[in-house]
Write a structure and sequence with these properties.
This protein is an alpha+beta fold. The chain has 18 helices and 19 strands.
């Protein structure tokens, strides 16, 4: 989800990846996936959403709000099992490779875009070529860096692409294409469920601007009119969707866009909207009691961070010792219990606990609350200019309370002044960070784009993600880059996992971001709907939702 920009990444969010644009909370440790029987087909509902950052183009969407919409409009090559997170074939009939470098992808019959155009191998190849071209400045560009010829489409700053096609993509026939990577990468099949790898119809290339507000996908829902910015996005069932068990049950869904989660929650309680997967902190004390088995509480993939603009403001945040001191001055246990009523878990790794490769306690002392050692380390390292730390956050995601709690802890434990910079929308802070216009520390989160430890490393902290991706701090470490490369090319999954963990150890040593907490899904829905399921990326499976 990605960040939050991904959440991309997801935020979270990002959010990303997606980067995660907003936070979800609850109060009771009741676990549920939300599935609760069958209902009746047809009808319309409304759900809570935030304003997506960019136009709704899959290759340029790396945050959670846009990804939620696109996941209903498109069907990718792969989808992820909602219980195990394992990749499963969807639009692909097969994805095979003898060496993890040359992959052959065959498509299933029957998929069409919402304008009637047949989905072919060329639909995927054209979409990926567009996403990989740096002239298009797509958020998903780093995901194509592994494909042979990517350096020609993305040669770097102050250089122009020498082609508009990835050398490693070849169309064999309407149903088959091959992908040749620069080097073996065992995780490639896992990646292919991510938004950036969705296909695009010919209409996109004829008029990309119009497409941004009225995308034409190949999924169970199609757009119903144009995106009404800051108000709503409406989608309706696509009757020609070929999946027998994937057809949408509802006639239509409206994503109602909110600036404040409290307003959305009040609308949920009044049945003005029927589902939200983001609850405000003010709901924590009563949501479980009020909604009962219509309150969903379970682990998800997001990790919440405090990030540092290392490249933009090295005088303040360039030293790892300063970043470690800030980390040790944060009482994670207090924040997760007091602010979130236990619906967050203190983070002790850059990796989500639900992902293979996570190690409990991996951060060691850096994640332990020790104000005396934090102050000593902070002072020895020289502190920050003007003895002031600025904390930026998006005000549309319910983050004010916990960011101010962090600020108060830093003020008390480090003896610094703390100022706060709220941004009206998640997209605004992402834009300013991307343009290097904001030089304060910032709230960020990451939600997996695909279930792999690699997805928590490269999209947020690699060099390639600085210009086109979610490396908002501008972090660069050559040892980290080398370990990622070695892990990518490992001959066995076990060997690769160990190398990715070594790359994770470099991040733990440098702390370009500070992991603060890991997310739990907290969602709620009204009595008027059934079969509400939220996956590990905090996306609602709207195709299976029915009226009660």
């Amino acid at each position: 989800m990605r960040l939050t920009k991904t959440m991309r990444w997801t935020a979270l969010a990002a959010c990303t990846a997606l980067a995660i644009s907003a936070c979800s909370t609850g109060s009771d440790k009741k676990s549920s996936d939300g599935a609760n029987g069958s209902g009746k087909k047809g009808g319309s509902i409304s759900i809570q959403s935030g304003e997506p950052q960019h136009g709704l183009v899959p290759q340029n969407t790396a945050e959670s709000e846009g990804a939620q919409v696109l996941s209903q409009l498109f069907a990718g090559l792969v989808e992820y099992d909602r219980k195990t997170n394992d990749p499963k074939l969807r639009a692909a009939e097969s994805i095979e490779s003898p060496d993890s470098k040359v992959w052959t992808i065959k498509l299933k019959d029957g998929y069409t875009f919402h304008n009637g155009e047949k989905v072919t191998a060329q639909s995927f190849v054209d979409a990926w070529n567009w996403g990989a071209n740096q002239d298009n400045a797509a958020e998903g560009l780093p995901f194509f860096a592994k494909i042979e010829g990517s350096e020609d489409l993305s040669p770097g700053k102050d250089k122009k692409p020498t082609t508009d096609k990835l050398r490693g993509l070849k169309v064999v026939d309407d149903k088959t294409f091959t992908v040749t990577l620069n080097a073996p990468f065992s995780q490639f099949k896992v990646m292919l469920g991510y938004t950036a790898f969705y296909p695009l119809p010919k209409a996109f290339f004829q008029d990309p601007k119009t497409f941004e507000d009225a995308p034409i996908g190949n999924g169970p829902f199609q757009m119903d009119g144009k995106w009404e910015h800051n108000q709503q996005i409406k989608i309706k069932r696509y009757d020609n969707f070929p999946e027998s068990d994937g057809k949408a049950k509802l006639e239509s869904v409206t994503f109602k866009i909110y600036d404040k989660l409290e307003t959305a929650y009040n609308d949920l309680r009044a049945n003005n909207i029927q589902i939200t997967n983001k609850l405000p902190i003010s709901a924590m004390a009563t949501v479980a009691q009020e909604f009962g088995d219509r309150y969903i509480y379970k682990p998800e993939s997001g990790v919440g961070f405090i990030g540092f603009p290392i490249a933009t403001n090295p005088a303040a945040y360039g030293k790892p010792e300063i970043r470690k001191a800030i980390s040790m001055a944060i009482d994670r246990e207090s924040i997760t219990k007091t602010i979130f009523s236990g619906t967050r878990i203190p983070a002790d790794d850059f990796i989500s606990p639900i992902i293979p490769g996570y190690r409990k306690g991996a951060m060691g002392d850096a994640a332990k609350f020790d104000p005396a050692k934090a102050k000593e380390l902070f002072t020895t390292a020289g502190g920050v200019p003007n003895n002031t730390i600025e904390l930026g956050y998006n005000a549309d995601g319910g983050h004010k309370e916990w960011i101010e709690a962090v600020g108060n802890q830093l003020k008390k434990n480090l003896g610094v002044e703390v100022t706060f910079k709220p941004f009206e929308k998640f997209g605004k802070i992402l834009d300013e960070l991307g343009a290097k216009q904001f030089s304060g520390a910032f709230r960020m989160a990451w939600q997996m784009d695909y279930p792999s430890i690699e997805n928590y490393l490269r999209p947020i902290f690699s060099k390639v993600a600085i210009e086109n991706g979610s490396n908002y701090g501008g972090y660069v470490n050559e040892q980290f880059e080398s370990l990622l490369s070695q892990a990518d090319q490992a001959k066995t999954q076990e060997e690769g996992l160990k190398l990715y963990q070594q790359a994770d150890d470099v991040l733990i040593q440098d702390l370009p971001y500070i992991p603060v907490y890991t997310y739990m899904t907290s969602a709620a829905y009204t009595k008027t709907v059934k079969n509400v399921v939220v996956d590990a990326q905090n996306r609602i499976d709207l195709a299976n939702v029915e009226l009660a």
